[in-house]
Amino acid sequence: MLRQRSRAAEWMDDPEAEGFDAALDGLARINRLSLAARPVLAFLDQVAARHPGTPLRVLDVGAGGGDMLVRIAEWGRARGVTLELTGLDLSPWSARHAAARGVPARWITADLFDVEEQHDVVLCSLFAHHLDDATLVRFLRWLEARARLGWLISDLHRHWLPWGFVWAAVRLLRMSPMVVHDSTVSIARGFTRADWQMALAGAGVAAQIRWAFPFRWQVAALR
Ligand SMILES: C[S@@+](CC[C@H](N)C(=O)[O-])C[C@H]1O[C@@H](n2cnc3c(N)ncnc32)[C@H](O)[C@@H]1O
């Protein structure tokens, strides 16, 4: 069933979908429970260690409700790293959600491929699985062109174990209908190491592929 990446649609693929706002709250909860910020902050530690004293312009692609940017802002304060944060998301719900919660970032509401500005670090979490294989290759090249010091993709491992775990968890936690629907579809649209090797080869891009606990792949390039 999960041998190949699914092409099934997620409700969240519709940027104007009803229930988007509640789903962003649910995602923030899932991110906390699944330790989503850990690999992202560890990557920023690596960037900061390579470029000590350098202020960082950081772009979060498919930023959703902005909870990752909140964690990154906390990281910057704790590490004494000056940050200029930007959230980018296709959905207008995302900008509204981030503004209502005081996320300390500039916001861009657009398709990522329409955005040409460069940043020191470009990252995304739980975003890449929204792309089909051909668009993923295009995204890898886009990251290479937009990120001056490094980029990071953190996304889901496609496997029956996280699929079953998530199926049960979103029901037990009484998540919103959109989260319940999209959670297992997201895993079916997720990746194996071989998928990442193939996408990187297709894009002609060099990057490290690492496992991140629990059930995630971290694909990263550092300059
Ligand atoms: C599953 S959510 C992840 C949100 C957030 N990163 C998180 O971890 O909670 C994926 C987000 O990607 C956004 N998105 C999908 N396609 C996009 C595109 N082409 N350009 C920018 N954002 C996009 C969606 O609107 C959605 O908010």
Q: How would you sum up this structure, described in words?
A:
The chain is of the alpha/beta class and 223 residues long. The protein has a domain of 155 residues: 3-Layer(aba) Sandwich (Rossmann fold). The chain contains 8 helices and 7 strands; from the N terminus they run H-H-E-H-E-H-E-E-H-E-H-H-H-E-E. It has a 7-stranded mixed sheet with strand order 3-2-1-4-5-7-6, sandwiched between helices. Strand 6 and strand 7 form a beta hairpin. Helix 5 crosses helix 8 and helix 6 packs antiparallel against helix 7. The longest helix is centred in the N-terminal third of the chain and has 14 residues. It is globular and about 45 Å long. The N and C termini lie far apart (38 Å). The model has no long low-confidence stretch (mean pLDDT 97). The structure holds S-adenosylmethionine (SAM).
**What is the typical, i.e. mean, pLDDT?**
97
Listed once per kind, the bound small molecules are: S-adenosylmethionine
Q: Measure the end-to-end span.
A: 38 Å
Number of E-state strands:
7
Topology diagram in text:
Elements: H1 20-33, H2 37-50, E1 56-61, H3 67-79, E2 83-89, H4 92-100, E3 106-109, E4 119-125, H5 133-146, E5 147-156, H6 160-172, H7 177-188, H8 193-203, E6 208-212, E7 216-222
Parallel strand pairs: 1-2, 1-4, 2-3, 4-5
Antiparallel strand pairs: 5-7, 6-7
Helix pairs in contact: 5-8, 6-7
Structure at a glance:
The chain is of the alpha/beta class. It contains 8 helices and 7 strands, in the order H-H-E-H-E-H-E-E-H-E-H-H-H-E-E.
